[in-house]
Amino acid sequence: MPISSKIVRQMEESSWIRRMFEEGLKLKKQFGADKVYDFTLGNPDLEPPETFQRRLRHLVEHPIPKMHQYMPNAGFPEVREAVARWISEESKVEVPADHVILCVGAGGGLNVVLKTLLDVGDEVVVFSPYFVEYLFYIDNHGGVPVVVETGEKFEFDLGRLAERITARTKVVIVNSPNNPTGVVYEEAALRGLADVLREKSARFSRPIYLISDDPYKKILFDGAVYTHVFPLYEHSIVVYSHSKDLGLAGERIGHIAVHPGAESAAKLVAGMTFAIRVLGFVNAPALMQLAVKDSLRDSIDPRVYERRRDAMYGALTGMGFDIVKPRGAFYMFPKSPIPDDREFAGKCVERNLLVVPGIGFGRAGYFRISLTVPDRTIENSLAAWRDVASACALA
Asked: How many domains does the chain contain in total?
């Protein structure tokens, strides 16, 4: 076999989104793009804000000398300082610039952090449902994923978490607002999580690090508030991407920030600065570092996604679908009206509807809808949704 058996297995395990996307391509060729309703890919469809566009144009037309050359692996010092000021302002924890590393999007950042932290066999807790690539990132660096299922409304089950933490637990990953559910974890929930980790860290005489994967934190609805983990837990690391807030998914730009009170914080930063190089990223893209520097507090308009959330949630719940109402991000994670979510996804395909089965996110019996589609796609899809609801005895 020309490729490793592990990659073959992982490709199969991770293929649900890609499989449904490819099914959509075939349907669009057969029926026409306007007759196929593809809710599979979470590809941000809003253009970057004008403040970012102006800064980018200025850099291209008036380049800074040597801006395309090698830089410190952790990023341009002036950009790290700007990010540190923003995080300090938001978290009310004073974060020095040398605790910030510019990274190649959140995916790159998570790999940098995990490579730095993990020894072979160390355990990493993820909450189900989860972003599927967490499992592969953990495996990349010799870790062992430990999946802790959340409750009916996708809330933390702290008792279940406490039972699954062992002397091998090194990291817990939390994602809020969450992909795929859209749940936003409030301060009380995160404080409870921090209490469990603090108690277990003391018990096992080693810090359990909390990684907060936060790329959706500016996409909030209904007055929801993003809670920063830094004031709640000292052994915490934040990973961020501008893929969603600035609509820059293809530019791969984000940052890592280490809490100044974390155990061995300086060694962590040094390790990550080394890891970003040996993983082959070398540094975050130079032009994008400079372009986002003055747009850190800017964002696309989250009300667009909120409007789509309202339209989709109202329509589907009116048809009988059971949905925990998302309060952020741009996904919905309804319960499948039949036990087998893969069978349900197949019924949707028969009606030119494309969704991703929940099994692809570690939670069978659900399915994910992405709201990164034009409003007209939602409107035009409703007849097909009514048809599938009727076929499943919902309406």
From this structure: 2
Question: Rounded to whole angstroms, how far apart are CA atoms 311 and 301?
Answer: 17
Tell me, yes or no, whether 54 and 145 share the same domain.
Answer: yes
Please state whether 222 falls in left (phi above 0), alpha (psi between -120 and 50) or beta.
Answer: left
Q: Which residues contact 141 (CB under 8 A, 6 or more apart)?
A: 111, 114, 115, 118
345 vs 361: CA distance, rounded Å: 14
Compute the distance between CA of residue 90 and CA of residue 100 in angstroms, rounded to an integer: 15
State the burial class of residue 305 (Cβ atoms within 10 Å of its Cβ: 0-12, 13-18, 19+): buried
User: At which of 267, 292, 317 does a domain end?
Assistant: 292
> Contact, 239 vs 176, CB < 8 A?
no
Domain C-terminal end among 292, 323, 343: 292
Residue 167, Cβ neighbours under 10 Å: how many?
A: 10
Burial class of 14 by CB neighbour count within 10 A (0 to 12, 13 to 18, 19+): middle
| Under 8 Å between Cβ of 87 and 238 | yes
Which CATH number is 263's domain given?
3.40.640.10
- Kindly list the averaged pLDDT for each block of 10 residues, start to end, along the chain of length 395: 74 67 71 83 93 97 94 97 98 98 98 98 98 95 98 97 98 98 98 98 97 97 97 98 97 98 96 97 96 97 98 97 97 97 94 94 96 96 96 81
CB contact at 8 A, 254 and 105:
yes
Same domain, residue pair 161 and 259? yes
* Same domain? 186 vs 313: no
Q: What is the CA 345 to chain-centroid distance, rounded?
A: 23
Cα angle 239-227-370, degrees, rounded to a multiple of 5: 65
Query: For position 6, what pLDDT does the model report?
Result: 76
Which residues, 6+ apart, have CB-to-CB distance to 316 below 8 Å? 323, 332, 334, 385
Residue 349, domain extent? 5-48+300-391
Q: What are phi and psi of 328, to 5 degrees?
A: -175, 180
Encoded tokens for 371 = 């709201």
CATH of the domain at 338: 3.90.1150.10
> Residues 189, 210, 250, 19: is their CA dihedral positive or negative?
negative
pTM: 0.95
Residues 317-354, buried b or exposed e (16+ Cβ, 10 A)?
eebebebbebbbbbbbbbbbbeeebeebbebbbebbbb
